[in-house]
Write a structure and sequence with these properties.
The chain is an alpha/beta fold. 31% of the residues lie in helices and 24% in strands. Strand 7 (138-143) and strand 8 (149-153) form a beta hairpin.
């Protein structure tokens, strides 16, 4: 049987013997909206949670936070209706600034802006990239009840009308992306993100959990202190088509959007697997190790102890974090990574090594990527030259009757055990 999974902008394929059973683990196919732009217009015309466009008529400064190149947000369909709506309440183009919410990722250069924003946006509006480590761009708005300092992009925070645009989808420790997160994390300082992400170690900071998730509720408090007025969010299927669009008060958008996201992404499996081939879903979800790690985390949910997980992720931009690479230098085992991380305390960048070690210490991890082999080994990722080579290494360990699980879109799929 032939296995094929997304890989960068293409696919990877390999064969398994016909005698070996293969389960492709995908949520049921959900069709995209027949007219996605009309769906966005409808959401903006009926904002959730009492959001009121008329309050911002003639606003002097409008700030729109958008995700960076690591998130496949359909801006070409979300932004035209949004900008039409702003024009209808008297907002001139000169009042609008787009803020690219890179979080702790390196600031994007202007030459990269066309990768995420349509040409007409770049021509008509001011666009800037956030820099989490530039204090001149930041302002301190206090602390959350959990003690997280709310240090954020000053210009965004001081704007009259603050908007976030993004997707609602599962997130491995914040529960779900979407709502205020685009700005609350994406436009925050390194210190703020460090403190918030340190909450990932809390047992309730887990995939697909919202109300009782301390990391997510901390994000909500950050957004509240910034004063984000409106969220425009999409829920996508595996083909990255808009299934649902929601707009309005950010918390109301999350409460309405999460059940819809679950319908699109959750899938039950009957038992744990001894061998899983996991793809984050292709570009941009596998652009680097930083993003691709989610493919391992989601596979680990349904892997038995000692299983092999083959992570098929192009990682054309390498690790995605110099802080992560520097911290991993010289570490020779997952046990070493876990011990050092816990003794040194939480830090962004090194946390990626911790997340990988946490899952891979109970598994056999093999990576199929375009990364330099020396770098992959330094990050303890056990590179294989091809998907076929990785499968040929793993298949002999299968016991009679054990099947291969394949997660073609792991980062946006939430597998769970049927009886759990």
């Amino acid at each position: 049987m032939r296995i094929e999974v997304p890989y960068g902008r293409s696919t990877l394929s390999a064969r398994v013997p016909d005698a070996v059973g293969v389960d492709v683990i995908e949520a049921p196919e959900t069709p995209g909206a027949p007219d996605p732009v009309a769906a966005v217009r409808g959401a903006l015309a009926r904002p959730l949670g009492g959001a009121d466009w008329t309050k911002f008529t003639g606003a002097k400064t409008v700030a729109i936070a958008v995700n960076d190149k690591t998130r496949p947000v359909p801006h070409d369909q979300l932004l035209p209706p949004l900008m039409e709506r702003l024009a209808a309440i008297g907002i001139p183009d000169s009042a609008v600034t787009f803020y690219i919410a890179v979080g702790t990722h390196p600031p994007m250069g202007e030459e990269e802006f066309p990768a995420i924003l349509p040409a007409w946006v770049l021509k008509r509006y001011r666009v800037v990239s956030h820099d989490s480590e530039n204090p001149a761009l930041l302002v301190n708005l206090g602390t959350t009840s959990g003690g997280t300092p709310v240090i954020t992009n000053r210009a965004y925070a001081e704007s009259d009308f603050k908007i976030v645009v993004g997707n609602i989808e599962p997130h491995q420790f914040v529960g779900f992306s979407g709502g205020v997160k685009t700005a609350a994390v994406g436009l925050a300082s390194l210190e703020t993100i460090n403190r918030n992400h340190a909450l990932m170690s809390h047992p309730k900071s887990r995939l697909a959990e919202y109300d009782s998730n301390p990391a997510r509720q901390d994000v909500e408090e950050i957004g509240q202190k910034i004063g984000i007025h409106l969220a425009l969010n999409a829920i996508l299927n595996h083909k990255r088509q808009i299934v649902h669009a929601l707009a309005g008060d950010p918390r109301a958008v999350m409460r309405s959007g999460i059940p819809l996201s679950r319908q699109v992404c959750q899938v039950a499996v009957r038992g744990r697997y001894a061998l899983i081939v996991s793809s984050p879903g292709g570009h941009p979800k596998d652009i680097n190790v930083y993003q691709s790690q989610k493919g391992l985390a989601h596979a680990a949910l349904i892997a038995r102890p000692g299983a092999t997980v083959i992570l098929a992720a192009a990682c054309t931009e390498g690790s995605g974090s110099p802080h992560y690479e520097e911290w991993m230098a010289g570490k020779t085992s997952y046990a070493d990574v876990l011990e050092r991380f816990r003794s040194e305390g939480f830090r962004i960048g090194p946390h990626k090594g911790f997340q990988i070690a946490r899952d891979a210490s109970n598994l056999r991890l093999l990576l199929c990527s375009q990364m330099d082999e020396r770098l992959a080994r330094a990050l303890l990722l056990n590179p294989a030259k091809s998907l076929q080579e990785a499968l040929d290494l793993a298949l002999p360990a299968l016991k009679p009757g054990e099947r291969v699980g394949v997660l073609p879109h792991a980062s946006s799929t939430v597998p769970y055990l049927q009886d759990s």
